[in-house]
Design a protein that fits this description.
89 residues, mainly alpha, 0% strand
């Protein structure tokens, strides 16, 4: 299994994010192959992340990655107010 920045980002989303709506509402996120490919294009680019437009739930998950996860400035700050299973590592 590869351990690129994109893979770490996708794995964090699947470990800490919950599906907000639809038939899988309140279940742990399972990213589609297309979503994983989008994340890899963004985070595994040779010159660092680039501005590929992302909207919808994937955009929300990536925002959480940058606020509560390993992409947050200074590491992974706690997500105050969230129960322990929903906090970043």
């Amino acid at each position: 299994m590869s351990n690129t920045r994109g893979d770490r980002a996708a794995n964090w989303i699947e470990k800490f994010c919950i599906t907000p709506s639809g038939p899988d509402k309140e279940q742990w996120v399972r990213l589609s192959t297309a979503q994983r490919e989008t994340i890899r294009r963004i985070y595994d680019a040779p010159n660092g992340p680039h501005g590929e437009p992302v909207t919808g739930v994937l955009g929300a998950f990536l925002a959480l990655l940058h606020v509560c996860g390993p992409e947050a400035p200074g590491g992974s700050p706690p997500c105050i107010g969230l129960p322990a299973p929903f906090r970043g590592p």
